[in-house]
Automatic annotation (TrEMBL):
This is SnoaL-like domain-containing protein. It comes from the Eukaryota. It holds the Pfam family SnoaL_2. InterPro entries: NTF2-like_dom_sf, SnoaL-like. Residues 175-262 form the SnoaL-like domain.
Length: 296
């Protein structure tokens, strides 16, 4: 079906990322009925901060509970092609763009009829466990030896954001690449948001230190679904720890005009903490306790 914005009447066919961003980023608030109507009957909607919902009715009920009419998502960056995509966002109060709330990322895949078939969304945890996560992963893999087998991947220069993600996570890293392979593809002024940490890593030196800290033997980052997109790409993933399934998450990469990675947002799956449940009730518009200013 051609996409029609629930309020504008626009019948142009957008990319998958534009579709989900238009539906969830409506300036007048989230219309759960319109979003459910744009879904397939068997839609699967994963909220990695809570649980998975299946079917139009369940999605509509979830959206109604999560987003009161005073709340909306402000679209920040969009990626996608005709069938897959995603966008980064922050929560706002309807009619007030001066106060910034909870941040997140949403991935979407459409079916052959252009209906929403699958969504994964992730939002930032209110408790940032970055240093603890690093220590836990290193402890869990303390007895794993680093692989000294020579790399077997073929080095190349990716031409699009989708190609870059495919290259790093399905070609290079699984076949022995080191962090410098990715760092060579990052811009000097890259901004890297990992929501396990309070502040973003800004500039290649900070990002280098962060990326190398998580180059841990026994930890494998496995992409699940990768969206299309020339300038930006959204993808879902799972971490394997000593060969066993570990945390899942969602990421967004954006390239600059030179084809270098200028922006990254990583969001790991976390179980809702008491703080987040309290924030939902005390601040239904924003989902956080205090106003948040935008990051670089």
């Amino acid at each position: 079906m051609p996409f029609s914005s629930p309020r504008s009447g626009n019948t142009a066919t957008p990319s998958a990322g534009e579709l989900i961003a238009s539906l969830l980023g409506d300036a007048e608030g989230i219309d759960s009925g319109a979003i459910a109507a744009a879904c397939s009957e068997a839609v699967v909607w994963e909220d990695i901060a809570s649980r998975t919902y299946q079917g139009r009715a369940a999605v509509a009920e979830m959206l109604n509970a999560k987003f009161p009419r005073c709340s909306r998502l402000a679209v920040e960056r969009v990626a996608g092609n005709a069938t897959t995509g995603g966008f980064t966002w922050r929560r706002e109060a309807v009619g007030d763009a001066t106060v910034y709330g909870l941040r997140g990322t949403t991935y979407v895949r459409l079916d052959e009829d252009n209906n929403i078939a699958y969504v994964r969304e992730g939002s930032e945890p209110l408790f940032k466990a970055g240093p603890i996560t690093e220590a836990v992963l290193k402890a869990a893999t303390a007895n794993v030896d680093r692989d000294t087998t020579p790399p077997t991947y073929t080095a190349r220069t990716p031409t699009t954001a989708q190609d870059l993600v495919e290259y790093l996570w399905r070609e290079a890293y699984p076949n022995g690449a080191k962090p410098d392979v990715a760092l060579d593809l990052f811009a000097a002024d890259v901004v890297y948001e990992d929501f396990n940490y309070d502040a973003p890593f800004v500039g290649k030196p900070q990002v280098k230190e962060f990326v190398e800290a998580f180059d841990i033997p026994g930890i494998d980052f496995v992409p699940l679904e990768i969206s299309g997109g020339d300038a930006a790409c959204c993808f879902t993933w799972r971490v394997k720890v000593n060969g066993r399934d570990g945390p899942e998450g969602i990421s967004f990469y954006e390239l600059d005009d030179a084809g270098k990675v200028s922006y990254v947002r990583d969001i790991p799956a976390v179980a809702p903490a008491p703080l987040q449940r309290a924030a939902k009730w005390l601040s239904p518009k924003l989902g956080v306790f205090t106003p948040r200013r935008p990051t670089p």
